[in-house]
Amino acid sequence: MKKLEVIINKKRIDQYLMEELDLSRSKIQKMISQNLVLLNGSPVKNSTSVKMGDILEVGELEEEEMNAVAENIPLDIVYEDEDIIVVNKPNGMVVHPAIGNTHGTLVNALLYHSKELSNLNGEFRPGIVHRIDAFTTGLLVVAKNNKAHEHLARQLEEKSTHRKYIALVWGVIPHDTGTIDAPIGRDTSDRKKMAVVANGKHSVTHFKVIERFSKATLIELELETGRTHQIRVHMNYIGYPVVNDPVYGKRKIIDDSGQCLHAKELGFIHPSTQEYMKFSSELAECFIHVLEVIKDSENKY
Question: Is 133 a known active-site residue?
Answer without folding.
Answer: yes
